[in-house]
Amino acid sequence: MPRVKDPDRPDSRKLKGDASRERFLEAAAELISERGYAASGVDEICRRAGVVKSALYWHFGSKEKLLAAVIDRVGKSWVEEVSKSVYLEGTPESRLDRFIEGLEKIAIENGRLLRLLVGVAFQQRAVAPAALEALLLSHANARAAVVRGCEDALGAKLPDFDLIADLVMAFMNDLVLRGLVGQRSAELTRRLHHLRGLILLDLQRQLREAGLPPL
């Protein structure tokens, strides 16, 4: 009798395919953050992933689409971390503290991914439109997550939260350029503390202008 497949049993080929796809994403993220996109060849990505080249094209179709998938993952990780850092509990200032702590966690634990995004942004001419579109979408989603984080921290909506988001995004990019991501240092803590002060000052200004009570 033919063997009947158990619908609850995982498909071993699918599991193997998912695992190889994951290795490609990890290897590409590591290599591109270290060397930049243009200097990260398909052969080297495959060697680092430990998967044959044909599998890369089967999963992604091209190096450019692999980059777009990597950027999409980085952006989602950004949004997830920002969203987790602030929740509606405690005073607005304590929520702001958690938000800043969340940014520090992103800088330390996901510094490699931040370097990748900034590196791709500086090499726009070398990447395909699909990857640039993914980069712009990633930036927009991360910026929107910061705006939501400000709204959650304050428990209200104010008109200039988008400017605070721009400040945060520029600040994180500056950390990359200064080589402060991926490490815990007194300088990183100092800069984050200053960012907190700037955000708090602007929140107080916006509350005052809106006729709302101060924090």
Report on this structure.
The chain is mostly helical and 215 residues long. The protein has a domain at 63-209: Tetracycline Repressor, domain 2, CATH 1.10.357. The protein is built from nine helices and no strands. α6 packs across α8 (161-177).
What order do the helices and strands come in, and which of them pair?
Blueprint (H helix, E strand, L loop, with lengths): L11 H24 L6 H8 L3 H8 L2 H23 L6 H18 L1 H12 L6 H26 L6 H17 L8 H24 L6
User: Helical segment tally?
Assistant: 9
Give the name of the CATH architecture of the domain at 63-209: Orthogonal Bundle
- Globally, the shape reads elongated
- Please give the alpha-carbon distance between the first and last residues: 74 Å
Proportion of residues in helical segments: over 70%
The major β-sheet equals: none
Mean pLDDT: 85
Q: What would you give as the CATH superfamily of the domain at 63-209?
A: Tetracycline Repressor, domain 2
- CATH fold-type name of the domain at 63-209: Tetracycline Repressor, domain 2
Radius of gyration: 21 Å
Total number of beta strands: 0
Strand-and-helix sequence, N→C? HHHHHHHHH
In the predicted model, the low-confidence regions spanning at least 5 consecutive residues are none
**Per DSSP, what share of the residues sits in E-state strands of 2 or more residues?**
under 5%
CATH class of the domain at 63-209: Mainly Alpha
The helix-and-strand class reads mainly alpha
